[in-house]
Amino acid sequence: MKKILIIGAGEAGQMVAREIENAPELGMSLDCWIDDDESLQGREILGRPVLGATTRLAAVARERSIDEAIIAIPSAGGSTVRRLIRVCLEASLHFKIVPGLREIVKGDVRFEQIREVNPQDLLGRESVDFQTDTVRRQIAGQVVMITGAGGSIGSQIARLIAPLGPARLILMGRGENSIFEIENELRELHPGLDVLALIADMRDRERLLRLGRDLRPDIIYHAAAHKHVHFMEAWPTEAFTNTILGTRNLIEFCREAGTAKMVMLSTDKAVDPHGVMGASKRVTELLLLSAHIEGKAREAAGGERGTRFISVRFGNVLGSRGSVVPLFMRQIRNGGPVTVTDADATRFFMTIKEASQLVIEAGCSGEGGEVFILNMGESMEILELARSLIRLSGLEPERDIPIKFTGLRPGEKMHEKLMTRAEAEVSEFGEQLMIIRPRLSRDFDIAGLLTEFEVLTTAGRDDELRQRLLNLARDMKDLL
């Protein structure tokens, strides 16, 4: 019989205890509790003693020959989970975790819900879920197009949209292998869905406009863009032609196609950018805002209702291609070292599921001109994340896996921000979402700026282009 210790003697922990008691086939027996609530310490709960705070976990586990700990504190923040992981590992104690509060609200905790701790538990907050009923009503019967559909977020958006009954789902991308994979996956899971795999380059303006006239999507989720900071710093022409001109072409595509809404994925790196990648995304945010203002002006003059352009800012996405978590896990499997840019560097994190749901939610609730941001709580130290992932792998930082500091790469910042001070003054702050409603002067000449950038790009003057992009983004950081 396996001896179990439950960390957290509250309602969730007691649900777990009753499950164990009523299921002898599990081969488990609850021995005792650990809880930081002083009013519970020294008491018996369900006939088992509460033997102190979590600081005593290692000693209690050793004294009572505990085989496994179950972390049953669904409200625990990431720092608490990381600390408990460390203590369990120091005690050579296997551990699992119960689901979060939102899962518990939907029904009592069942033992089969208890699982291994994963990187999402290290976020420092609960993962956010959005309701699908409103989304389903707006997606059903619509032609939906996703750019960058073979990427981590683009493909997840496709997976979430597919069961909502779109009339057609268009998967657009340049990389044929990744588009091939998501197309086949969706055809197998949803055999009745009309799926079109579209291999196209957003930089090809004329072809894009022809496609707009033929395909006429109702909603576009624009996930295609370059995202690696150091690459864009080295090759600013790519950032301009792919991220900026590609987005400009897609705006024209929307007008040609009569698209109702376009939702673009942006990044927190667009706020006071230090590098080309962030600056290029800041410019695309301004492109969408300018397009929104132009459309409203045409409507006011008696024209038809135009496309609603919406931006969504992300932090770092856990588990996406190019994010630090897969890199760290690969480095851990290889025996290290785990490479961290700086001991003090921090980032905001969200899950792929959260990122994808946020994009879809923005498309449904946005009226145009907004910037949506997920409330991601406090930023996390990258060093702390690296140490926690090493411990999550059953190893000890520095002793088993070395950590190497590489220094910030060109274009990277020590700390990211979600919005500027000026943006905060025109924002709505909800529990899960922050919505910026920026204003921009009607005489702001972004077309002239893009023409200037094109001249620099054509002439191969990368250094000037890089500096001009940064200057523009910095000059406009408080522009509303």
Query: Over the alpha carbons, how many angstroms does the gyration radius reach?
Result: 25 Å
Helical proportion, percent range:
40-55%
Question: Average pLDDT value?
Answer: 85
CATH architecture of the largest domain: 3-Layer(aba) Sandwich
Named CATH topology of the largest domain: Rossmann fold
Q: So, the CATH homologous superfamily of the largest domain?
A: NAD(P)-binding Rossmann-like Domain
Topology, number of strands: 21
Tell me briefly what this model is.
The protein has 480 residues and is of the alpha/beta class. It folds into 2 domains: 116 residues, 3-Layer(aba) Sandwich (Rossmann fold); 343 residues, 3-Layer(aba) Sandwich (Rossmann fold).
List keywords for this structure.
about 20% strand; Rossmann fold; about 475 residues; alpha/beta; 17 helices; 4-stranded parallel beta sheet
Architecture overview:
The protein has 480 residues and is of the alpha/beta class. The protein has 2 domains: 2-117, NAD(P)-binding Rossmann-like Domain (Rossmann fold), CATH 3.40.50.720; 133-475, Rossmann fold (3-Layer(aba) Sandwich). The protein has 17 helices and 21 strands. The chain has helices at 11-21, 57-63, 78-90, 101-105, 133-139, 152-161, 176-189, 205-215, 229-234, 236-257, 276-300, 324-333, 352-365, 382-392, 421-424, 446-458, 462-475; strands at residues 2-7, 28-34, 44-45, 48-49, 68-71, 94-97, 143-147, 168-173, 195-199, 219-222, 261-267, 308-314, 316-318, 338-340, 346-347, 349-351, 371-374, 380-381, 403-405, 427-429, 433-436. The strands form 6 sheets. The chain has a 9-stranded mixed sheet with strand order 9-8-7-10-11-12-17-21-20, sandwiched between helices. A 4-stranded parallel sheet has the order 2-1-5-6, sandwiched between helices. A two-stranded antiparallel ribbon has the order 3-4. Strand 5, helix 3 (78-90) and strand 6 form a beta-alpha-beta unit. It is elongated. The model is unreliable at 101-111 (pLDDT under 50).
